[in-house]
């Protein structure tokens, strides 16, 4: 099946989709993006993703290229034309094309690119056995709350994880030894007291939409207590459970951190329960619950 991309107002064959060499996204990473899950053809948590996109744009003073109804229409069209039932849609918006100059160009139009693709179901072994993470220094800037396409530290970190045979790298604030987040996921632990802990959504992390959904789920579940605070690598290694969240990983159990075994080395009951609850939330979004 031939894939289709949306580029600045046109649906074009994916293989031929291109932006100008002087697009500021290409030259300066001057742009933002979103990744939204598609389940049975429906967008998961569309509204909070659009709210975050609009916030990222406004924090960087990039003009919104179209209103929400138009954006929603194009997203559906991209999903439809690519016949995606279960997968993801990727949206990218940049400050546009202009002669290279660091300061904002006058009159450039925001560039918009969208692609969609099917994804494979998660590897059952990952869910059954859990994954490993390594820890690395967080070398990013001070506005990680903006979903910017400037992802070089994240790419370096993920590559380091891959070379270490790990699923993800947890980035650590060198000033206090606390975990900020993964390179493309948010970080969580369950303490020995049974508290679910994740960092508060400050400027040091991206406020994941999966994170937000899980905060709601936990609030609605009796017997679970959420505490939004930083935690150190040492605390995580001694935790009862650990897991990560994202649009593409959902809720994924972690069983090793830098070689230290978490809990009994198997995915724990709280993580499993939250994963099930999150999958139910996705099914609900697709209207199939
Ligand atoms: N990554 N933290 C970072 C740095 C991220 O890049 C992401 C998302 C998350 C989780 O956010 P959400 O729950 O909204 O997916 C946290 C996407 C999936 C990506 O870059 O592919």
Give the gist of this structure.
29% of the residues lie in helices and 28% in strands. By secondary structure, it is an alpha+beta fold. The protein starts with a strand and ends with a helix.
What report would you give on this structure?
Helix content is 29%, strand content 28%. It is of the alpha+beta class and 289 residues long. The chain folds into two domains: 4-118, D-amino Acid Aminotransferase, Chain A, domain 1; 124-288, D-amino Acid Aminotransferase, Chain A, domain 2 (Alpha-Beta Barrel). Strands 7, 8, 9, 10, 11, 12, 13, 14 and 15 form a nine-stranded mixed sheet that branches. Strands 2-1-6-5-3-4 form a six-stranded antiparallel sheet. 37% of the residues are buried. The mean pLDDT is 97. Residues 35, 154, 181, 184-186, 206, 208-211, 245-248 line the site of N-(5'-phosphopyridoxyl)-D-alanine (PDD).
What's the structural blueprint in terms of helices and strands?
Blueprint: E1 4-7, E2 10-13, H1 24-28, E3 31-39, E4 42-43, H2 46-59, H3 68-81, E5 87-94, E6 111-118, H4 124-129, E7 131-137, H5 152-163, E8 168-172, E9 179-182, E10 186-190, E11 195-198, H6 209-219, E12 225-228, H7 233-237, E13 241-246, E14 250-257, E15 260-261, H8 269-285
Parallel strand pairs: 7-8, 7-14, 11-12
Antiparallel strand pairs: 1-2, 1-6, 3-4, 3-5, 5-6, 8-9, 10-11, 10-13, 13-14, 14-15
Helix pairs in contact: 6-8
The chain binds N-(5'-phosphopyridoxyl)-D-alanine.
């Amino acid at each position: 099946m031939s894939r289709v991309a949306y580029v600045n107002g046109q649906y074009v064959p994916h293989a031929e989709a291109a932006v100008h060499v002087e697009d500021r996204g290409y030259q300066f990473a001057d742009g933002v993006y979103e990744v939204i899950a598609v389940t049975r053809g429906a967008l998961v948590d569309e509204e909070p993703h659009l709210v975050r996109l609009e916030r990222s744009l406004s924090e960087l003073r990039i003009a919104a290229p179209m209103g929400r109804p138009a954006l929603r229409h194009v997203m559906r069209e991209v999903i439809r034309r690519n016949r995606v039932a279960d997968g993801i849609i990727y949206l990218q918006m940049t400050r546009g094309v202009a002669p290279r100059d660091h300061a904002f160009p006058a009159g450039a139009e925001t560039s918009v690119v969208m692609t969609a693709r099917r994804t494979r179901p998660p590897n059952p072994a990952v869910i059954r056995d859990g994954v490993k993470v390594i820890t690395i220094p967080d070398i990013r800037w001070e506005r990680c709350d903006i979903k910017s396409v400037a992802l070089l530290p994240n790419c370096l970190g993920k590559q380091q994880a891959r070379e270490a045979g790990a699923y993800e790298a947890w980035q650590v604030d060198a000033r206090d030894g606390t975990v900020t987040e993964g390179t493309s996921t948010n970080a969580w632990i369950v303490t020995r007291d049974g508290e679910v802990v994740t960092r508060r959504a400050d400027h040091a992390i991206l406020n994941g939409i999966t994170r937000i959904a899980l905060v709601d789920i936990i609030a609605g579940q009796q017997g679970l207590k959420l505490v939004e605070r930083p935690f150190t690598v040492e605390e995580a290694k001694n935790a009862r459970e650990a897991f990560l969240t994202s649009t593409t990983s959902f809720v994924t159990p972690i069983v090793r951190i830098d070689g230290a075994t978490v809990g009994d080395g198997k995915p724990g009951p709280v993580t499993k329960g939250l994963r099930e609850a999150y999958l139910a939330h996705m099914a609900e979004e697709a209207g199939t619950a």
